Amino acid sequence: MKKVLWQQLRRTEFQKAVEADAVVIIPVASTEQHGNHLPVNTDADCCFTIAVRAAQAIDEFPVLVLPTIWTGYSPHHMAYPGTITLKYHTFVEVLTQVATSVHAHGFKKILFLNGHGGNSAVVAAMRTKLAAEEGVSAVGYTYWEMPSVPEEWKAISQSDKGFVGHAAEIETSLQLYLQPELVDMGAAVWVPGVFGDPSTASREKGERLLSAGVSALIAILRDYHSGQLEDRLMWRKEIL
Ligand SMILES: [Zn+2]
């Protein structure tokens, strides 16, 4: 299978990827409590898996996936064991310096794929700062907000109704599909720190949810590489 993981490439392979105008995905996630039934790497695992499967499905141009930024902005989960959070400005700096490093090697198409709700607004604002202050343009999506995903997930989910709560039906279903050995369905009930009802989750739903997410990301990657995806930050930079 072709290599899509950034950390597996050699120097010469990065040069070839730049020449082919590769899209580079920076997965951004969290390490945080997900109720009593899911592992703390839930966001990181869901986000990274969607990125890797989409990258592997594209043959027309290279897509590289960076190692997941495994800790995010999760102060609201610190009341529960296992959560690791960065402070706001530290998180913004980590994202900024990773993206500027990628850009410094010649990559022009950078996509942040976020997998944690608490990161969404930070990543969006950070991308504006990245363009204005560093001259680096990047697009960004939270995986459950990619075009077509909310509608498709609404048709699959029962209690979440397409809305990703926290450690609820959708995330629990995804984890039953991806890491079933780490899920304790006997403890899959609402407790403080859970937003939604995990008891309606299933592995079969998880497989369908993941497939819809991967398809949505493939479409975004193709539009981005072809130039069809409007790059609002580049436009913004031109008028500054
Ligand atoms: Zn989560």
Write up what this structure looks like.
The chain is an alpha/beta fold and 240 residues long. It has one domain (6-225): Creatininase (Rossmann fold). 45% of the residues lie in helices and 8% in strands. It is built from eight helices and four strands; from the N terminus they run H-E-H-E-H-E-H-E-H-H-H-H. It has a four-stranded parallel β-sheet with strand order 2-1-3-4, sandwiched between helices. 44% of the residues are buried. The mean pLDDT is 94. The chain binds zinc ion. Zinc ion binds at residues 34, 42-43, 116, 166, 171. Zinc ion is lined by residues 34, 42-43, 116, 166, 171.
Brief write-up:
This protein is an alpha/beta fold and 240 residues long. The protein is built from 8 helices and 4 strands, in the order H-E-H-E-H-E-H-E-H-H-H-H.
How are the secondary structure elements laid out?
Layout lengths: L10 H9 L3 E6 L13 H16 L5 E3 L22 H17 L4 E6 L5 H15 L4 E4 L6 H8 L12 H10 L24 H24 L5 H8 L1
Parallel strand pairs: 1-2, 1-3, 3-4
Helix pairs in contact: 2-6, 2-7, 3-4, 4-8, 5-7, 6-7
The chain binds zinc ion.
The site of zinc ion (ZN) has 6 residues, from helix 2.
CATH class term: Alpha Beta
- What is the count of β-strands? 4
Can you tell me the number of structural domains? 1
The side-by-side strand order for the widest beta sheet comes to 2-1-3-4
Beta content comes to 5-15%
- Helix percent reads 40-55%
Q: Taking all residues together, what is the mean pLDDT?
A: 94
List the uncertain runs.
Answer: none
Please compute the radius of gyration using only Cα atoms: 18 Å
Distinct ligands: zinc ion
Q: What's the architecture in CATH terms?
A: 3-Layer(aba) Sandwich
CATH superfamily: Creatininase
Count of separate DSSP helical elements: 8
